[in-house]
TrEMBL record, chain A:
It comes from the Eukaryota. Its EC number is 1.2.4.4. Gene3D superfamilies: 3.40.50.970. Its cofactor is thiamine diphosphate. Heterotetramer of alpha and beta chains. It is an enzyme of class 1 (oxidoreductase). It comes from Arabidopsis lyrata subsp. lyrata. This is 3-methyl-2-oxobutanoate dehydrogenase (2-methylpropanoyl-transferring). Belongs to the BCKDHA family. One of its GO terms (molecular function) is branched-chain 2-oxo acid dehydrogenase activity. GO terms for cellular component: mitochondrial matrix.
Automatic annotation (TrEMBL), chain B:
It comes from Arabidopsis lyrata subsp. lyrata (Lyre-leaved rock-cress). InterPro entries: THDP-binding, Transketo_C/PFOR_II, Transketolase-like_Pyr-bd, Transketolase_C. This is pyruvate dehydrogenase (acetyl-transferring). GO terms for molecular function: metal ion binding; pyruvate dehydrogenase (acetyl-transferring) activity. NCBIfam families: PRK09212.1.
Length: 472, 406
């Protein structure tokens, strides 16, 4: 007979209850008062062997008895041993509601005006880190705008911006270490930026020139850098989630002081891979952080058409994963949440789910015009009133770490760098034709060598049909 | 005239060198040292007078050793050590265990592979020896654990992913095609994916339509992967080891009905070349290309054919992607007739691709059209008798050879 002391107010009343029950003095399982809200621990098996008690379930009990006693007696005392723990029975037909009356609250530290909220818990950042976070957010914003314009001018074939999600990108990256492996979706170039990917390297990939690490094989924004532990973007939605669990499994096996971090959008949570990956991560006890950028839109599908749960954070509980909802446009909150999550993931060897609420200010990509399915006012409001950059800027300025002058200096410098990077990338030669056939396998097999020969022969006989800027 | 020149060159090699010899790895002599072959007339054309030549050749052949068994047995190898006998699934397990001993990065993941030992006992005992992190039991989601294996491979491990049945890997198609096959390429070579995806497939004994699939048909188009099919304990172990050591993603096809084949294999370390076909029985009249379980149906038919006076050359192609067109080509140039016997369905199977490849590359050497015996384009029925009729039987192979050799 184990004493369940968790919610017991006093030992005396507990003892009295034990006495009462063992002496068979009536069950306390009043029909309407038996609901135990989410008690995860096993209640003690007191009195369950007493045959008389099973049929005594209509006695009313006074309200003054201890809550501990109420929990225990308010049930039919039979419990079932079932894999996973003991399951209490209930004679009431009551369904778990599809939603809580209140939504899961969102963690934020800076208010809409960038003022620190009183009594907020957050991880302190140094001036150096805070300034780098802000500068990188500005850099990302400028980079996105210039690349987007370049695509509109026909200089780039394609681009996808991360406008509005700069805080998620940069602040989360800032809270990680370079050994943490990143599995991005495609709207997280800021993580690469934080780790040291240069504007020139971004531009090289977008232009697919011979300096691109991907050797010109992928479309723009499909960055990848093994040096910076940022895994090459694969266009398929949510496939990176199981990959991240695998990487976390690998880190767990090697007992590394590092975790895997993967990003995805609200739309990605509908994919089977999301559910499977979360389940796997929980079962494997893998150190992986799942960061969902809930930005309200999956191309033209709003979240109301994507899922009917209270966002993404509640899904973590379904898989046994610790979760938190964060204001994705609050850089300080993002930083704190990811920092804390990382500590938990590695020291406790468990996955963590972070839902960052934000807004996709830009279009889905350059192939999309989002004003066709949402109002320009909505976009404008999020861009102005909820802008992550202005909020964080207010905070760092209030600490005396930033100024208007620093702002204009930074912006003009980055703009110049970006335009130069564009110019250089545009002029740089494309990769050699042989790269079309290399890296399919470790060594080109005979059939691919034949096929390359055939292509080259075709080019020889029809040179006018072949682009002039691809070196043979 | 095809403008594609077969890259491997036109050197003809004598049959005795058709061993699975990789010059770098010690390999025990293979089973190709079979009966001595006499001089023969190679006959072109198909009219009756020429048929006589077959018969005359036959008289010479009768003095040769007839194939006593369907499975070509290994001759007593003077150079081999004692060797040990085991079943095919044990050979796979031995290969896997040796590789896991040799390289701590090798790990296994799949459903019921850990303490249960695997549905076909290929991973039996491994969890006890290596721990349940290295031999990982996963929840039921093929796409997820294949994706997991890919992610782990990109971070330095060498996972062996087991599909309980190859058919289940249809659920993993997204990860296999988009990530496994492509990420080495799209990342510019920055990330390698040295995974092995293995499992039993093929038509079993009344397993039903969903559990009797031939996934090699569906996977063969995916760029970036290699596919091999094992058929004997010897090549099962060799291919398993080679696949694990390969830097490319390799899909190893096993067959549900071959797991209990017994054979004596060498004690010493050996691997089988992933891109090489195996010469099962050298011959002169016709080239029969096959793989996996159909190899045994072909060898069964070969017994009958030899008694009827034919001399088929049987090649187990083993490497399904890419095809070993060197071995196959040399054989076609010698016999001028090709019969492909496969378990895949008629449409879009390995046989269909192989037919196209042979026609394209060796058209001038063919005396008759390439014939391909495959299963019908139907889901495999459960009824035993019907199921038997969906799979190519030795009698059909004999008829096909007789037809081609007319």
């Amino acid at each position: 007979m184990a004493l369940h002391l968790r919610s017991s107010p006093s030992l005396k009343s507990t003892f009295l209850n034990i006495l009462r029950q063992n002496l068979g003095f009536g069950s306390r399982s009043h029909v309407t008062r038996h609901i135990r809200q989410n008690l995860p621990h096993d209640p003690p098996l007191r009195g369950s062997q007493n045959p008389i008690r099973r049929f005594c379930n209509t006695m009313a009990e006074p309200e003054t008895l201890s809550s501990f006693g109420q929990h225990e007696d308010a049930r039919n005392h039979q419990v079932m041993d079932f894999p996973g723990g003991k399951v209490a029975f209930t004679p009431e037909i009551r369904f778990i509601s599809e939603s809580d009356s209140e939504r899961v609250p969102c963690y934020r530290v800076l208010d809409d005006n960038g003022q620190l909220i009183t009594n907020s818990q957050f991880v302190q950042v140094s001036e150096e880190v805070a300034v780098k976070i802000y500068s990188d957010m500005v850099t990302l914003q400028i980079m996105d705008n210039i690349f987007y314009e370049a695509q509109r001018q026909g200089r780039l074939s394609f681009y996808a911006t991360a406008i509005g999600e700069e805080a998620i990108n940069i602040a989360s990256a800032a809270a990680l270490t370079p050994q943490d492996v990143i599995f991005p979706q495609y709207r997280e170039p800021g993580v690469l930026l934080w780790r040291g990917f240069t504007l020139q390297e971004f531009a090289n990939q977008c232009f697919g020139n011979k300096s691109d690490y991907g050797k010109g094989r992928q479309m723009p924004v499909h960055y990848g850098s093994n040096k910076l532990n940022y895994f090459t973007v694969s266009a398929t939605i949510a496939t990176q989630l199981p990959n991240a669990v695998g990487a976390a499994y690998s880190l767990k096996m090697d007992r590394k002081d590092a975790c895997a971090v993967t990003y995805f959008g609200d739309g990605g949570t509908s994919e089977g891979d999301f559910h499977a990956a979360l389940n796997f991560a929980a079962v494997m006890e893998a150190p992986v952080i799942f960061i969902c950028r809930n930005n309200g839109w999956a191309i033209s599908t709003p979240t109301s058409d994507q899922f009917r749960s209270d966002g993404v954070v509640v899904k973590g509980r379904a898989y046994g994963i610790r979760s938190i909802r964060v204001d994705g446009n609050d850089a300080l909150a993002m930083y704190s949440a990811v920092h804390t999550a990382r500590g938990m993931a590695i020291s406790e060897q468990r996955p963590i789910l972070i839902e960052a609420l934000t807004y996709r200010v830009g279009h889905h990509s350059t192939s999309d015009d989002s004003t066709r399915y949402r109002s320009a006012d909505e976009i404008e409001w999020w861009n102005k009133a909820r802008n992550p950059l202005s909020r964080f800027r207010t905070w760092i300025e209030s600490n005396g770490w930033w100024s208007d002058e620093a702002e204009s200096d930074l912006r003009s410098r980055i703009k110049k760098e970006m335009l130069e990077a564009l110019r250089v990338a545009e002029k740089t030669e494309k990769p050699n034709l042989k790269n079309m056939f290399s890296d399919v396998y470790d060594v080109p097999p005979s059939n691919l060598m034949e096929q390359e020969l055939l292509v080259r022969q075709t080019i020889d006989s029809h040179p006018q049909d072949y682009p002039t800027d691809v070196p043979l | 005239m095809s403008s594609i020149i077969h890259g491997a060159g036109a050197a003809t090699t004598t049959l005795s060198t058709f061993n699975s010899i990789d010059s770098k790895i010690l390999v025990a002599p293979s089973r190709t040292n079979l009966s001595v072959r006499s001089q023969r007339y190679i006959v072109a054309g198909s009219d009756a007078s020429k048929k006589k030549n077959f018969v005359s050749g036959l008289r010479v052949r009768h003095s040769q050793k007839l194939i006593p068994n369907a499975v070509a047995t290994k001759e007593a190898d003077t150079s081999a050590s004692t060797g040990h006998e085991l079943l095919l699934f044990e050979a796979l397990q031995e290969g896997l265990e040796e590789e896991m001993d040799r390289d701590p990065h090798v790990c296994v993941m799949g459903e019921d592979v850990g303490h249960y030992g695997g549905s076909y006992k290929v991973t039996k005992g491994l969890a006890d020896k290596f721990g349940d992190l290295r031999v990982l039991d996963t929840p039921i989601c093929e796409n997820a654990f294949t994706g997991m294996g890919i992610g782990a491979a990109m971070t330095g491990l060498r996972p062996v992913i087991e599909g309980m049945n190859m058919g289940f890997l249809l659920l993993a198609f997204n990860q296999i095609s988009n990530n496994c096959g492509m990420l080495h390429y799209t990342s510019g070579g920055q990330f390698t994916i040295p995974v092995v995806i293995r499992g039993p497939g093929g038509v079993g004994r009344q397993l039903g339509a969903e559990h009797s699939q031939r996934l090699e048909s569906y996977f063969q188009s995916i760029p970036g992967i290699q596919m091999v099919a094992c058929s004997t304990p010897y090549n099962a172990k060799g291919l398993m080891k080679a696949a694990i050591r390969s830097e490319n993603p390799v899909i190893l096809f096993e067959h549900v009905l071959l797991y209990n084949l017994k054979e004596k294999i060498p004690d010493e370390d050996y691997i089988c070349n992933l891109e090489e076909a195996e010469m099962v029985r050298p011959g002169e009249h016709i080239t029969i290309l096959t793989y996996s379980r159909m190899r045994y149906h072909v060898m069964q038919a070969a017994k009958t054919l030899v008694n009827k006076g034919y001399d088929p050359e049987v090649i187990d192609i083993r490497s399904l992607k890419p095809f070993d067109l060197h071995t196959i080509g040399n054989s076609v140039k010698k016999t001028h007739r090709v019969l492909i016997v496969e378990e895949c369905m008629r449409t879009g199977g390995i046989g269909a691709s192989l037919t196209a490849a042979i026609n394209e590359n060796f058209h001038d050497y063919l005396d008759s059209p390439v014939m391909c015996l495959s299963s019908q384009d139907v889901p495999t029925p459960y009824a035993g008798t019907l199921e038997e009729w969906t799979v190519v039987q030795p009698a059909q192979i004999v008829t096909a050879v007789e037809q081609l050799c007319q």
